[in-house]
């Protein structure tokens, strides 16, 4: 159950979910609440049924924390926390053993779970190109539909939501560069076995750059500026 509308929009228009959850992550709170309602109220769906009461409440808190951290307001804090996890767990050989991170500290385990769920939530830029492109188009259409409503309601049109102004490939370069590359670089440093997702992201950035040139036919100066941005992002990913 998702409206294809952002938290900012729901708060701006005073939607019932925003009122219910006091403007705090209304979509993520709804997701979490709905998940536990389904589990507890659907025959044969209670995957927690065999747990002791204390274990259930501990697991419930873990799930709530992870789901609420899929709200993008936590994104940059999560990047910093992931970078810090890497620094704190470096051994004498300047390497990290992921198993050590998950062995002792409940707090660090929670941060890793938050990281993986959030990464999955914004994962279309790190998938193979055919999947990445398809989902980017779906996401942009969702943004544009919200932008149409924002215009009709006379409220601020959020970034990436104006279908008359946004160039699709260029928007994906910017989104990946500023949001996904830092997260992915930090994640793969911590878990090097996931290097393929960083490779997909770098490859996809170059594909978006190619499409942008084909659609816009920018000046050579503009091409070089964007090419430099893409190369810098790819170098960041290559350092993982």
Task: Describe the structure in your own words.
Helix content is 69%, strand content 0%. The chain is mainly α and 240 residues long. The relative contact order is 0.09. Helix 4 crosses helix 7 (106-121) and helix 5 (75-88) packs parallel to helix 9 (168-190). The mean pLDDT is 95.
What is this structure's SSE topology?
Blueprint: H1 7-12, H2 16-20, H3 26-41, H4 53-68, H5 75-88, H6 98-101, H7 106-121, H8 129-153, H9 168-190, H10 195-216, H11 220-238
Helix pairs in contact: 3-4, 4-7, 5-7, 5-9, 9-10, 9-11, 10-11
Proportion in helices: 55-70%
Sequence stretches where pLDDT stays below 50 over 5 or more residues = none
* Mean pLDDT metric: 95
SSE pattern, N- to C-terminal = HHHHHHHHHHH
Q: Termini, distance in Å? A: 36 Å
Please outline the major beta sheet: none
Number of strands: 0
Structural shape: flat
Strand content: under 5%
Rg, rounded, reads: 20 Å
Structural class: mainly alpha
**Number of DSSP helical runs:** 11
Feature tags:
mainly alpha; 240 residues; 0% strand; 11 helices
Quick rundown:
The protein has 240 residues and is an all-alpha fold. It contains 11 helices and no strands.
């Amino acid at each position: 159950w998702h409206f294809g509308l952002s938290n900012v929009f729901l708060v701006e228009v005073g939607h019932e979910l925003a009122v219910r959850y006091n403007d705090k992550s209304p979509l993520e709170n709804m997701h979490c609440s709905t998940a536990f309602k389904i589990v507890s109220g659907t025959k044969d769906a209670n995957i927690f049924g065999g747990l002791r009461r204390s274990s259930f409440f501990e697991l419930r808190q873990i799930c709530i924390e992870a789901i609420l951290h899929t709200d993008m307001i936590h994104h940059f804090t999560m990047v910093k926390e992931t970078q810090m996890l890497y620094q704190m767990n470096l051994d004498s050989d300047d390497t990290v053993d992921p198993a050590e991170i998950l062995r002792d500290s409940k707090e660090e385990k929670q941060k890793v779970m938050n990281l993986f769920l959030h990464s999955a939530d914004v994962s279309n830029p790190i998938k193979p190109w055919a999947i990445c492109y398809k989902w980017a188009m779906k996401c942009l259409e969702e943004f544009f539909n919200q932008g149409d409503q924002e215009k009709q309601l006379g409220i601020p049109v959020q970034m990436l939501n104006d279908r008359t102004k946004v160039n699709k490939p260029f928007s994906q370069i910017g989104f990946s560069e500023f949001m996904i590359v830092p997260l992915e670089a930090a994640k793969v440093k911590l878990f090097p076995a996931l290097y393929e997702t960083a490779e997909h992201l770098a490859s996809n950035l170059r594909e978006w750059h190619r499409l942008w040139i084909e659609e816009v036919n920018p000046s050579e100066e503009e091409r070089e500026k964007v090419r430099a941005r893409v190369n810098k992002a790819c170098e960041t990913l290559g350092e993982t």
